[in-house]
Specification:
Elements lengths: L1 H15 L17 E7 L26 H9 L1 E3 L2 E2 L5 H10 L3 H4 L16 E2 L14 H7 L3 E6 L15 E2 L19 H18 L3 E6 L11 H9 L5 H26 L6 E7 L18 H4 L3 E4 L7 E3 L3 E2 L3 H9 L5 H6 L6 H4 L13 E5 L9 E6 L2 E6 L5 E5 L15 H17 L6 E2 L18 H15 L1
Parallel strand pairs: 1-7, 1-8, 2-10, 3-11, 5-6, 5-7
Antiparallel strand pairs: 2-9, 4-16, 8-9, 12-13, 13-14, 14-15
Helix pairs in contact: 1-13, 6-8, 7-8
Length: 482
């Protein structure tokens, strides 16, 4: 079986290499669009006041005020099935910078991995957690295409910071720790970032240069630094737990900062030729809607808000196709008319959304039809796991137990009804596709810990399969139905 899998994986890679990566022709600076990409941190799919699905009641939080995101959505396109490349921070961020999946980059964990001394049943991979200088970031690609570039806010990729990876202007090599430095009147530097963004855009306009600006907001980290008056507002709305009130307040503060950037684009007369993209780097810590949260490949960990506004995008429109964050790299390249180096094009896994954003109802063209998410780590009750999406179906493999779960997301978005037992053929087919992909990209996999002692305590929180998460989710569902 192993030899057959390796042979098939070789053919898979070879056939993928036959695809030529499309690139637009170079355009003069005067007509090339500007790109503003805003990335929130740990924001759940529904953690704002903007519905992320027209027919799902729990796709937003009605009592959370985010009027600027609402206006952005009304001016552009919402993606109801947008996914972060990973359920945690830095793997998503490196994937966004490079257009390559975390599995292929072998960067699947944000923090340190579990040590063998913790007595885990499985030994899990480690990630270098420092960006490779040989990778071509979207900043470098657009710089080479004549753009001036800026990265403001959280970097979290080490490697010398944004300045060494394609950004003319940056805040440096910032991580989560930076959020705690800023309280009122500038909570987690939201308003400071908005001011620096306007200064950068104004200079680019004076210089007659198209620009790429990434605003990696530090929110929703350090919610205790939200504006006190906003926290008080949500306490009055009935959020009795202080952390909930603070998190809601910081979400609104971030919305205000988003609005200040949008207002700056208008003041500078740039709106007609500027694309604005908003998304989150991964899910939050679990809410009443989608199952799971940060560190989980259930929908709550990877399905994220996504809004795009810009030239040619119909106001108030929707896209219900499944899209993923590393699609942004080829999309930005298409917008900019940037030529991809051959070696870079050969590794890109995403597909451009230019057709979808223009209203053409056709599938996003990627090298593979299926989408795979790989999180071979201990962080939630699911333990190390991977998942594959194909059509309406989603298969999850839990490495510690060997269990497989199958869901039909068209009629079970909350992942409450496991179809694996009743659909063995489909399970086998999806599992084979999952194995094929992981072998093709040479993904790191967990392996059995030969020193694991089941009679000794394991120093890992909530790692006994996914049963605990399933039971908690079911209890929550029953309580909501009462």
């Amino acid at each position: 079986m192993k030899k057959r899998l390796v042979r098939t994986a070789f053919l898979y890679i070879w056939s993928s290499a036959l695809f030529a990566f499309p690139s637009a022709a170079q355009q003069p600076d005067s007509v090339r669009p500007n790109i503003v990409f805003m990335l929130s941190d740990d924001q759940h799919w529904d953690e704002h006041g903007v519905p992320m699905h027209p027919e799902v009641s729990y796709a937003h939080t009605p009592n959370l005020d985010t009027p600027r995101l609402k206006a952005l959505a009304e001016q552009g396109m919402r993606f109801s099935a947008a996914y972060a490349p990973a359920p945690v921070c830095s793997p998503t961020r490196i994937s966004l910078q490079t257009g390559i999946s975390p599995a292929a980059l072998r960067w699947t964990k944000a923090g340190p991995s579990v040590r063998s001394s913790a007595n885990p049943p499985l030994l899990v991979p480690t990630s270098d957690r420092a960006i490779d200088a040989q990778l071509v970031t979207i900043g470098e690609l657009l710089q080479d295409a004549g753009y001036t570039t800026a990265h403001l806010g959280k970097w979290h990729l080490q490697g010398g910071g944004p300045a060494r990876h394609g950004y003319d202007v940056s805040d440096g090599n910032l991580g989560n720790e930076a959020s705690g430095r800023f309280a009122a009147p500038n909570p987690v530097d939201l308003f400071g970032m908005a001011e620096r963004a306007e200064a950068f855009m104004a200079k680019a306009k004076r210089d007659g240069k198209p620009f790429y600006l990434q605003l990696s907001w530090l929110a929703l980290h350090s919610p205790d630094n939200a504006l006190p008056e906003t926290v008080a507002k949500y306490r009055e709305r009935g959020l009795r737990r202080e952390r909930q009130a603070q998190r809601a307040a910081l979400t609104e503060n971030m919305d205000t900062a988003v609005g200040r950037v949008l207002d700056a684009i208008d003041r500078l007369g740039l709106a007609e030729n500027t694309y604005v993209v908003f998304m989150s780097d991964n899910g939050g810590h679990g809410r009443d809607g989608l199952r799971g949260g940060k560190g989980s490949l259930f929908e709550g960990g990877v399905r994220v808000p996504m809004i795009v506004r810009g030239p040619g995008i119909v106001a108030g429109s929707w896209c219900h196709q499944r899209v993923v964050g590393y699609d942004l790299y080829p999309t930005f390249a298409d917008w900019a008319g940037a030529e991809l180096p051959q070696a870079t094009a050969a590794r890109i896994e995403g597909g451009s959304w230019v057709d979808q954003l223009s209203g053409r109802d056709k599938p996003v063209q990627r090298r593979r039809d299926a989408l795979v998410f790989h999180f071979p780590h201990y962080q939630t009750s699911a333990g190390p796991h991977s998942t594959i999406y194909l059509g309406p179906h989603k298969l999850i493999r839990f490495y510690e137990t060997g269990e497989l779960a199958l869901f039909n997301l068209e009629n079970d978005l909350r992942e409450q009804h496991d179809l694996a037992a009743s659909s063995p053929r489909l399970v086998r087919e999806l599992e084979q596709e999952l194995d094929l992909y992981l072998a093709a990209v040479e993904a790191d996999l967990p392996r059995v810990n030969p020193d694991y002692d089941p009679d000794k305590p394991s120093q890992i929180d909530s790692v006994r399969g996914e049963r605990g998460e399933r039971e908690r989710s079911s209890r929550g569902e029953r309580q909501r139905d009462r």
